[in-house]
Amino acid sequence: MDTPSYVKRFVNYCGKLSNSIFSFTNDEKKSCTCGSINKKPLAKLREPAGKDFRIVREATIVTFDPNSKFTLWPGYVSGTGQTYFEQAFYDVKEVGYGSFGIVYAATFRGDGKRYAVKKAHYAYLGLKNRTRLLHEVDVHERFANSPGILRFYGAWEEEDRLYIQLELCKFSLSDIKQCPACVNCKTLTVFARDLLTGLEQLHAKDVLHFDVKPDNILVTEDLHCKLGDFGVAVRLKVDELYDLDEGDSRYLALEVLNNPPTKASDIYSLGMSLLELAAKVNLPPSGTGFQMIRQGYINPNWLNSIEDVRLRALILWMIDPDPLKRPTATMALAALSDKPDSPFNSDKLVLYFIILTALVISGIILLP
């Protein structure tokens, strides 16, 4: 059984892509619009009623790792009226916010380096609420320095509020999605490799991100991507798999609406994110369009707007309506390789792409 020619081109092309830093041409530099991005305005935090902190008053390290080396800045003095964040960091600037809280860029007095610090929107409502918020630390700390995942440095709580110190990235993929120089088929193929590497790390330890979307994908200075925001992450062998906080419906796989999430759910969400970015469209959060996508019908105009047929093939594979037909992160990564043991050499996947080719020929899926 021969592999379809366009699948071979897909494998050969992707295998030659470099992991190195991208170098822009002069024209690409001129077309970069990231410098004009306006971040969201300051979000007002809800301060605790009075100053009667019920759980934590002074700054205290939060860790679930017995070997953690994270320490507080030694110059911190409690009871001064200034929080640890205010004492240990300077040149503080807001760079974004989300459901968790505000994200600041700040310089740490301990080493003079810039970090991102997430400050929770709300003070703890009680012990149960505190446990739920600390879940993010518990999960992210396990992957503190893993490839494809935002670097985690440490966390602390003070005045009934959680703070998390992270690697600083200037933008999310959502921020720069309209920039033609930074988000195109060339860069998205490498972004896919970065993010699949992150998912491979999570899935190997039976952890689901469960909220993969452009807002939660951070872009480094050298134009690589990392997964961030583990607020709704799921530990398959530990957490209750029902009544979970679901991620953004635009990127959510249909099967998780009535069933527990699986690793294939994360693959689907990443595939939908790549589709949105490559086709430069707004995904529907509900309604007829939402249902049609989940049933496997993708607007042909969207597909035709993705100029690289190889990227298009990868996306279609990742968003297959049947979770059992989607690749694992490891399989998708191997597809982005020119190694002889690429999964495209397996009979099952060859058959899958032969069927896909038949759909192309019949006009159901339009490829150049």
Structure commentary:
- With 368 residues, this protein is an alpha+beta fold.
- It folds into two domains: 5-37 and 171-362, Transferase(Phosphotransferase) domain 1 (Transferase(Phosphotransferase), domain 1, Orthogonal Bundle), CATH 1.10.510.10; 60-166, Phosphorylase Kinase, domain 1, CATH 3.30.200.
- 34% of the residues lie in helices and 14% in strands.
- The chain has helices at residues 5-15, 26-31, 84-88, 127-141, 173-176, 185-204, 263-279, 287-294, 300-304, 309-318, 329-335, 347-362, and strands at residues 60-61, 89-97, 101-108, 114-120, 152-158, 161-166, 171-172, 207-208, 217-219, 225-227, 234-235.
- The strands form three sheets. Strands 1-5-6-4-3-2 form a six-stranded antiparallel β-sheet. Strands 7-9-10 form a three-stranded antiparallel β-sheet.
- Helix 6 packs antiparallel against helix 7 (263-279), helix 6 runs antiparallel to helix 11 and helix 7 (263-279) packs antiparallel against helix 10.
Q: Bin the strand percentage.
A: 5-15%
> In CATH terms, what is the architecture of the largest domain?
Orthogonal Bundle
Number of strands: 11
Q: Any idea what the shape is?
A: globular
Number of domains: 2
Q: What CATH first level of the largest domain would be assigned?
A: Mainly Alpha
- SSE-based structural type: alpha+beta
Number of helices: 12
Strand ordering within the main sheet = 1-5-6-4-3-2
The low-pLDDT segments are 1-22
- Global Rg: 22 Å
Q: Give the N-to-C terminal Cα separation.
A: 24 Å
Which fold name fills CATH's third level, the topology of the largest domain? Transferase(Phosphotransferase), domain 1
Main sheet summary: 6 strands, antiparallel
Average pLDDT figure? 84
Please give the share of residues in helix. 25-40%
Return the string of H and E elements.
HHEHEEEHEEEHHEEEEHHHHHH
